[in-house]
Amino acid sequence: MVKKVTKAIFPVAGLGTRFLPATKSVPKEIMTLVDRPLVQYAIDEARAAGIKEFIFVTSRGKGALEDYFDHSPVLEQELRSKGKTELMEILKSTNMDSGAIAYIRQHKALGLGHAVWCARRLIGNEPFAVMLPDDVIAADKPCLQQMIEAYNETGGNMVAAMEVNPEKSSSYGMLDIGDGQTDGELVKVKGMVEKPKAEDAPSNLAVIGRYILSPNVLKNLNQLKSGSGGEIQLTDAIAAELTQGNDVYGYRFKGQRFDCGSKSGFLQATVSFGLAREELRDDLLKYLKSEMAEQSTPTTTRRETNAPSIKSRF
User: Fold this and answer.
1) Which parts of this chain are annotated as the region Disordered (predicted)?
2) What's the CA gap between 114 and 120, in Å, rounded?
């Protein structure tokens, strides 16, 4: 019988340098898509999948992230006194019960594998999920819930997978899959390669930030030395499962993934999630159409109509 997955690790120790200067004082994970921080999307997805224990691997300067999940008595009292019950319910969804959340420090930036290894004592001998808040996935059924439902049938290890263009291979862990597995949600993995060149990629299936892993992966991490990029790679520890005769599956999830670790992906997600909100859609769509029309207007015309381009405003 497959053991139930109730614990999840959230590696959030990164400095978020691609978003400087904002991340000089604000953890990247609490930057907002519309009106919810990135980390809230991950927490909501984990809750929907049945996760009960939330383990954050953090670093120095992440105090605001910890405060976000704490109760705010003054704010709660203010909303209560003004009868703002709808906002009260939204606020409650951000609170975490005592004992449900834990924080572990990663003192050195040694990679994703090392971040997961830091949480080993809180995982013990149980299967666990790993969620990267940078990867925000819009789906009718949350991605991790899809994966756990599949995992309950297969056991082993499972990674979320999506097809990428060959030139993007060097940014991902890539899956080597068996012949005849071009269709279907679940694929049997034969091997994994971390950030290969396009010509060396074994397939076009890339691993993205959702994992369900055996506790044996933590033992593998304990034996690893630094790999690609001088970091301890989680991909290498999962690949070691294959050499030990343990199953690894790739799961083609249903949904749209946004790479919110990049500025472009973050902006795309902001627009997409904004358009998905009924109360925002019309105004946002009207603005986007107007802006696109203005951007396609010759510069001389814009000057004549006293309508500066967006570049000249920032």
Assistant:
1) 291-314
2) 10
Q: CA-CA distances (angstroms) from residue 153 to 79, 107, 180? A: 45, 37, 21
pLDDT of 258 reads 96
Q: What is the pLDDT of residues 120-145, one digit of tens each?
A: 999 999 999 999 999 999 999 999 99
- pTM of this structure: 0.88
Question: Integer distance in angstroms from the first to the last C-alpha of the chain?
Answer: 58
Give the H/E segment covering residue 75.
helix 73-81
Structure token digits, residue 68: 């976000």
Sequence-distant (6+) residues with CB within 8 A of 207 are: 159, 160, 161, 172, 173, 174, 175, 192, 235, 250
pLDDT band at residue 154 under the 50/70/90 scheme: very high
Query: 238 — phi, psi (to 5°)?
Result: -75, -40
- What one-letter code names the amino acid at 170? S
Distance between CA atoms of residues 101 and 98, nearest Å: 7
Are 175 and 203 in contact by the 8 Å Cβ rule? The answer is yes
CA pair distance 218, 121, nearest whole angstrom:
10
| Lowest model confidence (mean pLDDT) among 72-76, 100-104, 123-127, 147-151 | 72-76
The answer to whether 138 and 254 have CB atoms below 8 angstroms apart is: no
3-state secondary structure (DSSP) of residue 76 = helix
Pick from 219, 193, 55: which is nearest to 129 by CA?
Answer: 55
Closest listed residue to residue 187, CA positions, set 253, 254, 239, 250: 250
β-strand 7-11 against 53-58: which pairing, if any? Answer: parallel
The SS3 of residue 50 is coil
* Length in residues, the chain: 314
- Residues 104, 222 contacting (CB under 8 angstroms): no
